[in-house]
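Exercise 3.2. Students should predict the tertiary structure of the chain below and write it as C-alpha cells, then compare their answer with the key that follows.

Predict this chain's 3D structure.
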Amino acid sequence: MYVFAWLIFILPLISFPLALFIGRYRRNLAGIIASTMIGLSLLFSVLTYFEVQKSGIIYESFHWFSNINFGIYVDNLTLIMLLMVSFVSLMIQLFSIYYMKDDPNRHVYFAETSLFTAGMLGLVESSNLVFFFLFWELVGLCSYLLIGFWFFKPNAASAAKKAFIVTRVGDLLFLIGMAVLYTSLSGSSLLSPGQSPLSIPTIINLISTNSAGFVHAIGSTNLGIITLLFLGGVAGKSSQFPLHVWIPDAMEGPATVSALIHAATMVTAGIYLVARVFPLYEVAPSYSLITVAVLGAFTALFAGILGIVMNDIKRILAYSTISQLGYMLAAIGLSGIIGSIGVSLGMYHLIVHAMFKALLFMSAGAIMIALMDLRNVKEMGGLWRKMPVTVSLMFIGAITLAALPPTAAFFSKDAIIAGAWEYFSLSNGSVVYLLPWIFLTIGAFLTAIYTFRMFFLVVLGKPRSHLAEHAHDAPLIALIPLFFLAALSLILGVFQGGFYNFLYPVYKAIDPSSVLIYSAPGIIQYIPLILALFGILITYIIYGTERWKHMDVSKRWFYKAAKEKFYLDYLFTRLIAERTIIPISGSIADVEHSYNRGVEKFGTDSLGFGSFLRKMQTGLVENYFLVIVLGMTLVFIFLIIGGAL
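Answer key:
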C-alpha cells in the first residue's frame, strides 16, 4: 500500500476537525496545525514523486459498491498538481497566520482552508470520476464557506450564494456528462468483469489500446455530447464565459481565500479535468477541441476588457485570473491540431500562474491590511515609499502577469500564443482556426494594460488618501512566503523544456509525436511582447503621470457597458431567473400544489367515509338484519322500476 500517496489528502482532511476544535480553545494553534498538516502533505508529495519516478504509475483502489472503486491514480500529471497545490497552499497558510491574526474566528478559517486543500488534493488523486466529482463538490462547498466567511457582511453572504448557484449549473452539466459516459460504456464488451466505465485508468487504457473500438462502443455523437458537457462543468468551476460571473463577487472573502481559490484550488480544478480526461477529447469529434480552444481564447479577451475598467484591486486580479484560465483552456484546445503538447502548454502556464497569482493576491492583502481594508486603487498611490518591500514583491508579480522577460510567464504564455499561430498554420485556413491567435494576442496587450494600471495607481504619485499616507510594510517574517513565490515566478521558465518532457509519457500512448516547443515565424513571434510593452507605455503615460485625473470616460457607451460587465448579471438575474425560471417554477409549484391538495382531499374524504362505515359496525345482529332488509328492498325497487320484474 502506498501510504504516503494516501496521506497527501488525508492529512489536511484530519486537520479540519483538529483546527476547528482545538482552535476553539487555543486559537493561535489552529494556524500551526493547518500549516503543519499541509507541510506534511507537501513532504509526502515529494516522496511520492520519487516513488513514481522509481516504480512507475501508482494505481491503488478498494471496492466500494457495484463496479465502482475508490482509489488513487498518480502519474506525472497528478504529481505536478500535487506539488503545486500543497506548496502554494502551504505558502498561503503561513501568510494567513499573520493576515488573520486579529480575526476572532480564525480557527474556523484554518479548518475550512484545510478542508479546501484536502478536497483539491483528493480530486487530483482520484482514480474514478465518481470520487473526482465528490471531491469536486467538496471544493465547491468550501469555496461557499470561505467566500462567505465574513457572513455578517451582506455582500459576502450574497457573493457566496451566487458562487454556489452559478457553479452548480456547471456541476449539473458535468454530472449529466458522467451519466452519458456511464450508460454509453456500461455493458460494453470492451470492459472486463469488475471494470468501471468511470474509472480514469480504464478510460485511458481503452483509448490507448483500442481507440477505434472505444469510439464505436460509445458512438461519435455521444462522445461529442460528453466532452461538451464536461466543458460546461469546466466553465463553471474555472470561470469561463458565460459562467464566469461568480468570481468577481467572490472577492468579498479574505484576500488569502482569494489567493487559495485563484492559485491552488477551485478554479484550477476545471483545467485539470480537461487535462485528466484529455484522451476523451482526443477521440471525440473535432468540434469538441475547437470549442475548447475558441471558448478559452474568447474568455481571455473578454475578461481582459473587464479588468481594465475595475478600480477594486482584488477584482482586477479576479478578472486577470479568468483571463489566464482562458489561456490555459485555449492551449489544451489547440491540441486538436498541434498534438498533446497543447495540454503541456496549458498545464505549464497553470503552474506558473499559481505562483504569481498567489504572490499578487497576498501582496494585495498586505496592502489592504496597511490601508485598513481599502480596495479602491484610485485612493492609494505613493506606496513605493511607504511599503517598498511589498511593492517590490508586487512588481515581480506584475511583470510576470504581463509576461515580460525573463519571468516564467514570458515563456509559458508566449508558447501558448505561438502554439495558436501553429494551430492556424496547420489547419485548413478557416478563420475559426485563426480566432484563438487573434484573441490571445489582443489579450496579451490588455493584460499589460490592466496589470500596470493597477500597479501604477497603487505605487506611483503621492498618497491619495489619509490611509495611504500612513501605510507601512508588514513584518518581514510574514512576507517570507511571498519571497518564495516571487523567486519561483522568475525562475520557473528555466524548466520549460523539462516540464514538457516530464508530461510527455502521460499522453505518449495516444499521441506518440515528439515534443515540440513552437515559435511563430519572423516578426509574428515578437508581436505579443511588443504589444505588452506598448500597453505598459500607454498605461504609464495615462496613470503614471496622473493624466487620468483629467480624463472622463464614464459617459462613453463602451466604458459603461464594460463597467456593467456587458449586462450579463442583468441577463442572468432579471431576464433568465426572474422572468423565465421563477415564473416556470411557480407554475410547476402551482400544479404540484393542486395535485397535493387533490391527494389530501381524497384522503380526507376517504377518512370521512371510513368513519361513517365504522359507525355501522355496532355489533348488534338486529341492526345488521335491518340493513340487509333495507338493502334488499332497495334492490327490489330498482328492479321494478327498470322493468326487470
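Discussion points: The CA atoms of residues 72 and 375 lie 42 Å apart. Strands lie at 58-65, 68-74.
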